[in-house]
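Key result, reporting period 2: structure in, sequence out.
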């Protein structure tokens, strides 16, 4: 912020402007979360108790699962890059364990 601030000085106005900019970005990201799908699968009460990071991550994983024909296909999509670093990639098992953290089974989706 100080690098881009006029004269390299962060003033109260510069900070307020940055806060406003970030709030707009955060609100846009919040709208991208598929709350309906989260609420369907884990319930509204449980969904509200998740941190924002978890909501975004879980909502994306659920969306991929819903669009996939099998748990293996969903796992391959979700773990597309990290699977390359594994000697044996069992994406289905990794996805099953991830979903289990939220007490979700493949058939729940």
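The corresponding designed sequence is given below.
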């Amino acid at each position: 912020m100080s690098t881009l601030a006029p004269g390299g000085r962060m003033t109260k106005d510069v900070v307020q402007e940055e806060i406003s900019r970030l709030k707009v970005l955060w609100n846009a990201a919040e709208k991208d979360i598929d709350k309906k799908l989260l609420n369907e699968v884990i319930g509204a009460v449980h969904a509200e108790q998740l941190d924002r990071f978890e909501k975004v991550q879980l909502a994306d994983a659920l969306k991929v699962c819903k669009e996939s024909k099998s748990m293996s296909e969903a796992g391959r999509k979700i773990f597309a890059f990290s699977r390359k670093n594994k000697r044996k990639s069992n994406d289905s098992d990794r996805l099953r364990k991830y979903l289990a953290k939220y007490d979700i089974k493949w058939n729940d989706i």
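The chain has a mean pLDDT of 86. The longest helix spans residues 12-32. This case is discussed further under Risks and Mitigation.
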